[in-house]
Amino acid sequence: MTNHKLAAVLLSSLSLSLISACTKNYYNTTDTSSSSSSGGSSSSSSGSSSSSSSGSSSSSSSSSSSSSSGSSSSSSSSSSSSSSSSSGAGPQILTTTLSSGTTVNAVTINQGTAIGEGSANGATPFSLTNLAADTNNTQNTTNPFLTSGNVPDTAYGFCTYPSGGAPTRVSYVTGAKFATMAAAPLGTTPATGQDPSVTMAPYYFPLVYNTALTTAGNAFGGQAPIIGLFDWRPKDIDEALVAAESDDNGKTWYFMQTVLELYPDQTNPISGGYSATSTNTGCPATLQGTNANATVAGEYPSKIGYPPSGDDDGWGHASIIQLPGLGNAATGQFLYMLDRNTSNLPGVTPATEIVDGAPLWVINLTSASNKFPISNTNNKTTAVPGTNDIKSIASALSPVAGNTTNPVVVQQTNGLLNPDGIMAVFPTPAANAVAATTPGAPITVLYVQKILNGDDTGSTTMAAANQCNKAPFSGKTNHDISYVRLATTTDGVNFTDLGVVKGLNDPTTVDYTQTRWISPRGTLIDIYGNQTRWGLYFSGGNCLDGDSDAFHYIGYAESTDMMNWTVYNGITNPIASINSFTGPNQASGASVTVPSTAPVIPTQTWFAQRLYAPTATYVDPTHISMTFAGYGVQTPNNNLLNYRQIGNVELTVSIAGGTTLPATTPNNINAH
To answer: Which ranges of 407-473 would DSSP assign to H, the alpha helix?
Structure first.
């Protein structure tokens, strides 16, 4: 995007901000999961497009211990609410249970050569399993609430540091081609033809979906595959988007490709940003170091005009929209990414951070294929210059001239207000020839608007009674505002905002039994398959956490019109939750226990302090597979061996009246 176009976008957003700031919006949060009243007033300024310069804090609250990783439920647990509201969606239609004996999995991924093109496309990146193998570690992982010791060699497993020589990146290529056997179980020695398995950490913010591009398994498991996009983000080391495939409904994953890396190895032709003259490997300066306070040279070319990013602040919150049109599986897919850059937008007053202040980055995935969900990254650097441009942020934004085979064209969204990410996509009906097969038919999405420090800054400032106190355990205070909004698009780039939805959260509440913030990842269920009743799995949080990332619990809500929602599984009776809390409620001072009802999914140590980003896929008419992310610690700084873990569980769903899930539900990207 040119500076002139960026300026136009920002001016347009600023105009919308001024209009929105003058509008009052009443949330009337409909939540049948709790009888407690919401603290504070019920009204607040509607979301605006301006944001403050201050970033959000990161922490989570926890108290009692939780069950061990990989435990199974001992009995069937139901998510049904005992009451329903007279407003909103009415009685609950879909209920979620966990069948007896069902295992909650901390999932694994093979660490080895890529599915597509073999070693020429690289291998699974660094994992916390690799870092944990350092014999110098003294940090424990068995009980994150009693963390002791430390991790002295923070770059161990990511790079090697020869005596007297420059550091080099560690490659986990296991052969010229993808393995011929399923990966060895975690902790076991692989046989010939097998890759080792590693914990799927540090990965988080998953998007799991079916696509017409990958209809047959490329790995192992015997089932039609699902594709997963994961934010790979080793603390202060690097960030990238990793694509993987699962043939067993998300229990195990196989590596496909790494794209949009923040710190690429520019000495390696397989890496994005390759330069025959560069010596930059993306490694920290020392084995004991990180890339904190480092920046990427040339990450944002002059045509973009952004200051460089640093630390592990690359691009995240990946989502995909599939536009309608027969045969449009590749050219109609658009990838959306949040820019985490905490620098200020150039030329914008008041000072506004790029993260949550700028539009989302968007790329039309014209060269995606069955083994390359994002873009064909076969290593053809010599024959076709720029083929690997998608592999790093810098090369994607400044592509090599001459690549006509699969050029990378990066744009920015227009019309979304302070987008933190696209939360969910409403699928067009497969049976509707106009909506599902006609190019240009509108697609509707839920997205999250986040106004950094909004409740104590500028026109969105709230009364002190509606601002969070310090969180009980982290001692941090968060002033961000988040709104869930509805928008439509016909071209994947330009959006029409339809306003703030009602019922999912109340940005003014300080009540620990209510929801203040929502995360920009959820799963929509077209319950009857005819767009008359929608279910939504989402994650939320409140002042108890001291963080607007909304990682306290996974909940469930329903709607008949996309705009008005009734929450049936809230923070007090959730689908899943971090550790329970008992203490004084900020809203009343009275003692409160959150959750008051045991969650459907038993809390595990690896998501005991952060839990969010539920993304589910269809298994059969009465089961869905839910993939999500969790932390065993409040922040990675507390324990570098126990954060950003992908989890999975199979849930049983039942629909009132005895009907079952349509075969195309869930449908997370609008694929047909």
So the answer is: 433-437
- 187: alpha, beta or left? (left if phi > 0; alpha if psi -120 to 50): left
Q: Dig out the tokens for 133 from the structure.
A: 């193998």
Which amino acid is residue 349, in one-letter code? T
State phi, psi for 344 to the nearest 5 degrees.
Answer: -85, 150
pLDDT tens digits for range 186-242: 999 999 999 999 999 999 999 999 988 888 888 887 777 999 999 999 999 999 999
Q: How many C-beta atoms surround the C-beta of residue 542 within 10 A?
A: 31
Structural contact between residues 114 and 671, judged by C-beta atoms closer than 8 angstroms: no
- Partnered with residue 24 across adjacent β-strands are 45
Beta carbons within 8 Å of 604's beta carbon, 6+ residues apart = 66, 67, 68, 69, 70, 71, 104, 106, 630, 647
Q: Where are the beta strands (DSSP E) in 53-144?
A: 77-78, 94-98, 105-106, 108-110
Is 191 exposed, middle or buried, given 0-12, 13-18 or 19+ CB atoms closer than 10 A?
Answer: exposed
Mark 389-412 as b/e (b = at least 16 C-beta within 10 Å): bbbbbbbbbbbbeebeebbbebbb
Tokens 């195990």 found at: 252
Each residue's pLDDT tens digit, 484-543? 999 999 999 999 999 999 999 999 999 999 999 999 999 999 999 999 999 999 999 999
Q: How far apart are CA 582 and CA 591, in angstroms?
A: 7
Q: Is the pLDDT of residue 27 over 50?
A: no
Cα–Cα distance list, 102 to 69, 208, 617, 669 (Å) = 13, 20, 17, 27
Inter-residue contact 209 to 199 (CB < 8 Å): no
Q: Among residues 223, 62, 233, 215, which one has the least CA distance to residue 578?
A: 62
Q: Quick check: 628 and 639 in contact, CB under 8 A?
A: no
Instruction: Write down the H helix ranges in 22-166.
Output: 128-132
Q: What is the value of pTM for the model shown? A: 0.88
- Alpha-carbon span 571 to 593, nearest angstrom: 10
Say whether 8 sits in a helix, a strand or coil.
helix
CA 298 to chain centre: 26
Tokens of 470: 């310090």
Residue 398 falls in which region: left (phi positive, over 0), alpha (psi -120 to 50) or beta: beta
At 100 the pLDDT is 92
Which runs of consecutive H residues, i.e. helices, occur in 229-342? none
Retrieve residue 511's tokens: 């009540």
Query: How many residues appear in the chain?
Result: 672
Which residue from 223, 214, 282 is spatially nearest to 244, judged by alpha carbons? 214
DSSP string, 121-157: G-B----HHHHHT-TT-----S-GGG--S--S-TTBT
440 and 433 in contact (C-beta within 8 Å)? no
**Cα 268 to chain centroid, rounded:** 28
Residue 518 identity: I
Please give the backbone phi and psi of residue 106, each rounded to the nearest 5 degrees, phi first.
-85, 105
- The one-letter amino acid code at 316 reads G
On the 0-12 / 13-18 / 19+ scale of CB atoms within 10 A, 293 is exposed
Find all residues with CB under 8 Å of 321, minimum gap 6, and list them: 333, 334, 336, 422, 425, 443, 445, 489, 492, 669, 670
CA neighbor of 447 nearest in space, from 418, 478, 427: 418
Residue 592: CB atoms within 10 Å: 20
